[in-house]
TrEMBL record, chains A, B:
Entry EC no(s): 2.6.1.-
PROSITE patterns assigned to the protein according to its UniProt record, in alphabetical order: AA_TRANSFER_CLASS_1, CHORISMATE_MUT_2
GO BP, sorted A to Z: amino acid metabolic process; chorismate metabolic process
CDD domains named in the record: AAT_like
Gene3D superfamilies to which the protein is assigned, alphabetical: Aspartate Aminotransferase, domain 1, Chorismate mutase, Type I PLP-dependent aspartate aminotransferase-like (Major domain)
Name of the top EC class for this enzyme: transferase
PANTHER family: ASPARTATE AMINOTRANSFERASE
Protein name: Aminotransferase
SUPFAM superfamilies: Chorismate mutase II (SSF48600), PLP-dependent transferases (SSF53383)
Cited InterPro entries: Aminotransferase_I/II_large, AspAT/PAT-like, Chorismate_II_sf, CM_dom_sf, CM_II_prokaryot, NHTrfase_class1_PyrdxlP-BS, PyrdxlP-dep_Trfase, PyrdxlP-dep_Trfase_major
Cofactors (names): pyridoxal 5'-phosphate
Signal peptide: none
Keyword Transferase attached: yes
Native source organism of the sequence: Candidatus Terraquivivens tikiterensis
Length: 467, 467
């Protein structure tokens, strides 16, 4: 290396170069071993990824790194890079084509453009409109010039209003500095993950789940570990299985109750059990509670805020409760340290949310009767749809909350994706295929974001289709 | 590894584990060599980073990887990880505390809360308001229920309007599908980086630069490589130096002309030279053109869209041209493939931008006379401020555009951060310290986002302070 004339430095630099070359030569060896493993797995019909093998590898490396005095996060990052590269050199089985609700939505829109009326039960968006006072407030603030940059966390008035609301609604003692107003609930999930996960970390996702969780975990460099729940168990996650899914690399569990797509709300006992596991294993509970207001049970909503001693992020949104999807405003609550990390990310990525929309959100928090009315309407729709589904060849859990029903098709040989496409083509009814939510290919999701009459007509046509 | 009973697989897996351990043991050896180098450098008073040594290492590794059949991008990424970790184990000189414009803004707000009137020349936000028709349109659309989810890229009408605008404004032939309406210009920069960079990749940033670029490159796992420009050269980047900064790991160059903070607009010849380098070296030009409308020269704005054969992302915003900072709306333009990657990220992170704001943006694109008037006002302010700065003990480049002046303090022993703090305390004038924009500690940035009279009073007080 001719860059300096210093012989002592040059000698050391040469040694670094030689060592680096040796490292690469071992990596080449490692890759050819991985390629062999890949071929063997292919012959035996095994999948490429094997979480338990990976976990064992990571544990060994963690010990080795400690022994060698190598930084443990660096060691895990490097391991992730090695694993990913080795996965690339292994032959992969053809992937099962998963049709998402977005695919169906696009097909439905194409039909609509041809003038065909489609009963839209695909997209998870309530048909409610924002309260009039919310719109008027946004307008007044815009006119008054409130369309400037604000604090990344959101204006103090809004964060105070959210803290007050949360105290009133959930009895949780939250300081305004623990609140960030976010650009929607999805961004809240992203902030929670981005501020909690380092590359190579694992996150438990309970399936069936909102299709964004797993890609988002991967996007921040983490690895989603799926805990499957079953209709037969009333979509109740098993605490025992949950414990088995947790490894030394696990950092968080994502909860979403009331659940999209199942409508399940957890029993307090189960929620508490999960909280205890999180505390024991030092995990963060990332609790997406955007459907908190759509809870039809008498027991009321379970929130992670009831467990202040457990590391947590609570995510909420104005979208569902007040029909404000297109306002893109939500909030997250966590401990001050993580909130500040999340605020730094929001600041870098989007600066802040629109100023006048922050005032609209303040106004929405006063419209508690609107949120209640919307919830009552959703409950009535859920009941009507479930009643109409009863005689059909489907099985389902009667939702405790959220805005969905997630039936299984009990007709042999019907795949959920195929069902969704044909139902759309033949009956002009759009539903979300179950495969988008996990390994639930003979399920489909009905979104209740339509007037009851449309929903009932949709279910009637589903009945016709299945008969 | 007890995870499967398959002896053949187990044997191979064990070999993988042993090889991985060997890799780590070499890494430990490499780190101790690096630590030795670090000590030696410290003794000799040399800096920790040495780009030419790094480049030589990268070149050797590239050859070695090719010889060994290792993917070359993966090899460079791994090399970055090794270099960064080795930089960490070397003793570092104490870091210089960098005060940002946000720190100064917070201090200024604290004074304002005490009732003290501060002349705010810190934040890069024009004082212009959104055109009235923009506000009315947003209101009308909200009232009409246009507050729902939209396509992640933005509504087709808006993307068509942007494509038409870009054709009219820059003569660029862009299809609506190559456009994404983003939640502000900063998010456009993020999307450009996130869709272009893999961990370990390098990105050239031309300093002085907007303080968000380097952290954002790091945030997506990349490594910012700084090309410094000098006031003495009229902030013109040297093509020769640029070439030297590019290594096998370089993927992109970030351009921001007219420039925040210098006000520099590139000569067409220089822009072309950079485009040619990008084409030769297969790099992406990420061109942040949010100040395109604030161009005071007669030669007009240079846009990366003039180089369709070069891989590029063009970023723009409604914030500056129309005084719409708090609407959080901008757009990016690129090739269809990258645009689709960016749209997938925007979809996952924020779903879409508020629907009624998309209509507001359509309306703004019709208000060309407002953008022109705002630009004229900014030009007049720039001229007045420069004239007022002339007699002061400062040196500066008379801005070609943007909304800033970036003077150097020609008084011995004054540090830019100290200057900003004392100026605020003693004269109640807030400016952004130069250190926030790179290695420019005896500079400060004046933002022109205030009425001329305030700016002139601010400069008068700066003069008093420096005399």
């Amino acid at each position: 290396m001719p860059c300096t004339k210093d012989s002592e430095l040059d000698k050391l630099r040469n040694e670094v170069l030689e060592t680096t070359k040796e490292i690469f030569s071992l990596i080449a060896k490692r890759q050819s071993l991985c390629a062999e493993i890949g071929k063997l797995k292919q012959m035996k019909g095994l999948g490429v990824e094997d979480p338990s093998v990976e976990r064992a590898l990571r544990d060994s490396i963690a010990k080795e790194a400690m022994r060698l005095g190598i930084d443990k996060d660096f060691a895990q990052r490097l391991t992730t890079l090695l694993i990913e590269e080795c996965t690339k050199v292994q032959p992969k089985p053809p992937e099962r084509k998963v049709l998402t609700h977005r695919d169906i939505a696009r097909m439905a829109e194409a039909l609509e453009k041809q003038g065909i009326k489609v009963i839209r039960m695909d997209v998870g968006e309530p048909d409610f409109r924002a309260p009039g006072v919310v719109i008027e407030r946004a307008y007044q603030e815009m006119r008054a010039g409130r369309s400037r940059y604000t604090e990344p966390k959101g204006k103090p008035e809004l964060r105070q209003a959210i803290a007050d609301y949360v105290r009133m609604r959930f009895g949780a003692d939250i300081k305004p500095d623990q609140v960030i107003a976010t650009i929607g609930g999805a961004f809240g999930v992203y902030l929670a993950l981005a501020s909690t996960i380092s590359p190579g970390d694992e996150v438990v996702v309970i399936d069936p789940s909102w299709p964004i969780y797993k890609p988002c975990v991967r996007y921040v460099g983490g690895r989603p570990i799926v805990l499957e729940t079953k209709l037969e168990d009333g979509w109740e996650p098993s605490l025992e299985e949950l414990n088995e899914k947790i490894s030394a690399a696990t950092r968080a569990i994502i909860l979403n109750y009331p659940c999209n797509p199942t409508g399940k709300a957890l029993e307090r006992k189960t929620f508490k059990g999960i909280a205890e596991i999180a505390q024991d294993r030092k995990l963060t509970l990332i609790s997406d509670e955007v459907y908190a207001d759509y809870n039809f049970t008498e027991k009321g909503h379970n929130t992670v805020l009831s467990y202040p001693d457990v590391s947590h992020v609570m995510i909420s949104s104005f979208s569902k409760s007040w029909g404000m999807t297109g306002f893109r405003v939500g909030f997250v609550i966590s401990d001050l340290e993580r909130v500040n990390r999340m605020a730094a990310i929001q600041s870098m990525l989007i600066t802040c949310i629109p100023e006048f929309i922050q005032y609209a959100a303040i106004e929405a928090l006063k419209c508690l009767e609107d949120a209640k009315r919307n919830s009552d309407v959703m409950k009535e729709r859920a009941e009507a749809v479930c009643k109409a589904l009863e005689p059909l060849p489907v099985s389902f859990y009667k939702p405790d909350g959220a805005m969905y029903v997630f039936p299984r098709i009990d007709v042999e040989g019907i795949d959920g994706s195929e069902f969704a496409v044909k139902l759309l083509e033949k009956k002009n009814v759009s539903v979300a295929p179950g495969g988008a939510f996990g390994n639930y290919f003979n399920y489909f999701r009905i979104s209740l974001g339509q007037p009851k009459e449309s929903l009932l007509e949709g279910v009637r046509r589903i009945g016709e289709f299945l008969s």
